[in-house]
Specification:
alpha/beta; ten-stranded mixed sheet; 36% helix; globular
């Protein structure tokens, strides 16, 4: 669950009313919306099928590369009868997805690493609960290292997905939501990676960890309220005390990952690094692909390890290093692993038009308003809203990264250190991230999908924040880990707003051909977005 720190807001219209009005425009916008900016280009018909888009790419001479990622994605986000499968915990679709992962891993000859010689790890107490008879289970497999099979790199994605969220979630329901972005794209990347590593194993063992119920107790079962959540909480609440969590108090924590950390199926002390992928399949800035690399500052030596693993892929996808504190109270699958002392990073691609059905507009609206922007672009989380080219591109980078991390080079395991405030290195990263975004915007509306007016507004905001971060650097008297001054701490500092500013760019891009404008209640059914011709990079 990824939510950025952002500025405070007061005296504005209800953000969720804006969300409703944004949804209202989706159906009507499909006809001839200004995604073409100049207003003269022709729209392509909707494409909501990975295989169809792959074929389109081949026919137009711009193939998508790794078809395994797209093949796995297409199978994951559909049930056997072809219906969209959002994989919400404690639904039949979630069990369909689990079975698909088990069958696929078995067909690839990936070694099972779950319970009792199988791939699944069932969370205690969840089997046979009314409304969740199949229980909640992680799926885990391992490709043994060619040189050292007793040391692990863990790469993770969550197999479940969220309900659409927001003021009108009950009216909208899940529509044709299949949660391809959160987190189907990352799951398909893991399967593609497993296939490649079986054919050519890395030196260290690589564990493929597909967590369940990462979306927390609020996304167990369908709808804004249902009794199965309380039943699962009643059956499992005593389990979470070891990690200081409780489903009765909050319930928003990565359930499957917590369960593993409490009852691991292999020795966590043998893990060199945990890499959580959530979500993937959006460029961040169209024409300037990026991925946020979160939390590398928490362990001494971790940043160097990650940078070294990405060095061969330099220039393909920009790694925006972001401090864990920048994303505040957000949680991810890495959190319980970090609590257990496992070095871990979280990698995400910001594509917040489609995240949880557009719920993040509420968080990012204050920053957009600060830039003078009042309109946003939206899509529900469906395969047709995923940037498949961005997904394939980042899959190649991540596969190489994990292989490099799994090199038996004698590198010692990074050690945890106390991080209580933003440091000089965080400000330096913020300056670099803002610069990348500014340069991406300079490519123009024809590339980014951001109008000339909004480009100017966002450049002004980014430059202002970058200058603030630069002042933090100039005011620091210590080394890279030295704390910054008081003015450079807190959720509204230019260092803390790095993640939110980058994420906000996606909300003002017409990359999906939809625009949500403040207005009435949702217009149903909500159509898939239309794509601009020649949108490939």
């Amino acid at each position: 669950m990824f939510r950025p720190q952002t500025a405070n807001r007061s005296g504005v219209d209800s953000a969720m009313a804006r969300l409703a009005r944004a949804f209202a425009a989706l159906g009507a916008a499909a006809a001839a919306h200004g995604a073409c900016l100049a207003g003269s280009c022709q729209m392509e018909p909707p494409v909501d099928d990975a295989a169809a888009l792959l074929q389109m790419g081949r026919e137009k001479g711009r193939g998508l590369g790794n078809s395994d990622v797209l093949t796995y994605l297409r199978a994951l986000v559909r049930t056997p009868d072809g219906s969209p499968n959002p994989r919400i915990t404690c639904t039949p679709g979630n069990k369909v997805a689990r079975d698909y992962l088990v069958t696929t891993l078995k067909s690839l000859d990936v070694e099972p690493l779950g319970e009792e010689g199988g791939y699944e790890q069932v969370i205690p107490g969840t089997l046979e609960v009314e409304g969740c008879e199949e229980g909640i289970a992680n799926v885990i497999g391992v490709v043994r290292g060619a040189k050292n099979s007793d040391e692990y790199v863990v790469v993770a994605a969550h197999l479940d997905g969220p309900n659409n969220q927001g003021e009108f979630q009950d009216e909208i329901g899940n529509q044709d939501t299949d949660n391809a972005y959160d987190d189907g794209g990352a799951v398909s990347v893991l399967l593609s990676m497993a296939k490649e590593f079986i054919a050519n194993p890395p030196e260290l063992s690589v564990v493929f960890f597909f967590s369940s119920a990462e979306e927390g107790f609020s996304n167990i079962g369908v709808g804004s309220s249902n009794p199965v959540r309380a039943r699962i909480c009643e059956a499992t609440d005593s389990l979470w005390a070891e990690l200081g969590a409780s489903c009765r108090v909050d319930g928003q924590f990565p359930v499957g990952s917590y369960a593993f950390a409490i009852n691991p199926t292999f020795d966590m002390s043998k893990v060199r690094i945990f890499v959580g992928l959530d979500p993937l399949g959006a460029p961040g800035i169209r024409g300037s692909d990026l991925m946020a690399v979160i939390g590398s500052e928490v362990f001494a030596g971790l940043r160097d390890l990650v940078e070294g693993s990405l060095a061969p892929s330099k220039g393909k996808v920009f790694p925006a290093y972001i401090a864990r504190a920048t994303v505040g109270n957000n949680y991810g699958d890495l959190d319980p692993w970090v609590r257990k002392g496992t070095p871990a990073i979280w990698i995400a691609q910001p594509g917040f038009q489609a995240y949880h059905g557009g719920m993040e507009y509420e968080s990012l609206q204050p920053l957009l308003e600060k830039a003078g922007i009042s309109e946003a672009f939206w899509a529900l989380d469906r395969q047709c809203s995923l940037d498949l080219r961005a997904l394939v591109k980042v899959a190649a980078v991540l596969t190489d990264m994990v292989r490099n991390l799994a090199t038996d080079d004698g590198t010692s395991r990074p050690t945890m250190r106390a991080v209580t405030s933003f440091a000089l290195s965080d400000a330096e990263d913020a300056v670099a991230n803002y610069q990348f975004a500014i340069e991406g915007l300079r490519k123009g509306s024809g590339v980014t999908g951001i109008s000339a007016e909004d480009t100017t507004r966002m450049q002004g905001l980014l430059q202002q924040l970058q200058q603030g971060a630069q002042q933090c650097i100039e005011g620091s008297a210590g080394g890279p880990t030295a704390p910054l001054g008081e003015a450079c701490q807190g959720v509204q500092s230019p260092v803390a707003l790095t993640a939110a500013a980058i994420m906000a760019l996606d909300l003002v891009s017409s990359r999906l051909g939809e625009q949500g404008i403040v207005g009435e209640e949702p217009s149903l059914p909500i159509k898939c977005p239309l794509r601009r011709p020649g949108a490939g990079r």
